[in-house]
Amino acid sequence: MVEIYPWQTSLWQQLAGRTRHAHAYLLHGPTGIGKRALAERLMARLLCQHPNGLEACGHCKACHLLAAGTHPDNFVLEPEEADKAIKVDQVRELVNFVVQTAQLGGRKVILLEPAEAMNLNAANALLKSLEEPSGETVLLLISHQPSRLLPTIRSRCVQQACPLPDRASSLAWLEGALPQSNSEEREELLTLAAGSPLAALRLQAQGVREQRALVVEGVKKLLKQQIGASQLAESWNALPLLQLFDWFCDWSQAMLRYRLTGDQQVLGLADMRKVVQYLADKSGQAKILAIQDWLLAQRQKVLGKANLNRVLLLEALLVQWASLPGPG
Ligand SMILES: [Zn+2]
Predict the structure, then answer these.
(1) Using the 8-state DSSP alphabet, how is residue 78 labeled?
(2) Which residues have a Cβ under 8 Å from the Cβ of 134 and sit 6 or more positions away?
């Protein structure tokens, strides 16, 4: 049985409790809150031959085949490589699946994640098959960035928003998931994960707190001129690029907000608070705005998987960062 997270209980009841199911659902919301778990559980419920109320029975032929990964009427479509696009050939395979008759005589269920990984051709091929649904086929789309989907895809689906759980629920759940951690660590992890509890757990497994400590130490040394930009860029070779850009974006934004409000609450996590405050006080507004524009543009490139020379890119970032304090 797929785990259902405590913050999803009412969402689950809404979805699974429908008397008639739609042809397509779009589960959307931030990453790291369990949309996939929700979709998998719904898939099991929709395929089960003898459901118990809202739940799949776990014992019928369909449940056994699904658990073994060999259910013939179930199709999971994901990018072949993590973070890459879903190819049009993959969607064509899906379209062939849609036109086949269900082998177990029940529904066919498709799970596609993330929907925004389809390029235009792939999305068009999918749309065509959604227009001509054959038999009882249910498509479960998962999207972390629904704004990137074609409006025509969105409008053909029943949209189910999956909101971020409140901070208290997330912290309570993290306490159970990370029994060795203390409350300060959990607070920090959840903040680094922008409030997503499952993302917080993943970050912990990646060693994000250690990575963060390394980056913060490096930035402090850079500002004290104890290390050069290129040497520091080289030493960050193993760190995830997007993570680095997210942190620098956060810091530049915190500087701007602090300059506007003078409120120390906006300075962010304790490890960089003093540095951010110092930079906000010592740097010109125009320089901070310029670096923030640059960071956001580069972050888009990183997100778009552009072919980047990461050492050169980080060096450019650090050179600008080191020159923040001072006139201009
Ligand atoms: Zn069953």
Answers:
(1) -
(2) 98, 99
Tell me how far the alpha carbon of residue 136 lies from the centroid of ligand 1, in angstroms.
Answer: 17
Q: And the tokens for 43? A: 């898939």
Q: How many CB atoms lie within 10 A of CB 141?
A: 30
**Ligand 1 center to 52 CA (angstroms):** 8
Q: Is the peptide bond before 79 cis (omega within 30 degrees of 0)?
A: no
Determine which helix (DSSP H) or strand (DSSP E) holds 111, and give its type and residue range: strand 108-112
CA 66 to ligand 1 centroid distance, Å: 9
What is the whole-number distance in angstroms between the Cα of residue 39 and the centre of ligand 1? 16
For residues 328 and 291, what is the distance between their CA atoms, to the nearest angstrom? 12
Q: Which residues does 148 contact at the CB level (< 8 Å), separation at least 6?
A: 116
Listed residue (327, 307, 302, 308) closest to 249, CA to CA: 302
pLDDT by 10s per residue, the chain, length 328: 667 899 999 999 999 999 889 889 999 999 989 999 999 999 999 999 999 989 999 999 999 999 999 999 999 999 988 778 888 888 889 888 988 889 998 899 999 999 999 888 888 887 777 676 566 889 999 999 999 898 888 888 999 999 999 999 999 999 999 999 999 999 999 999 989 999 999 999 999 999 999 999 999 999 999 999 999 999 999 999 999 999 999 999 999 999 999 999 999 999 999 999 999 999 999 999 999 999 999 999 988 777 889 999 999 999 999 999 987 6
* Ligand 1 centre distance from Cα of residue 109 (Å): 14
Please count the other Cβ atoms lying within 10 Å of the Cβ belonging to residue 35: 25
Write the CA distances from 297 to 194, 250, 321, 322, integer angstroms.
20, 14, 16, 19
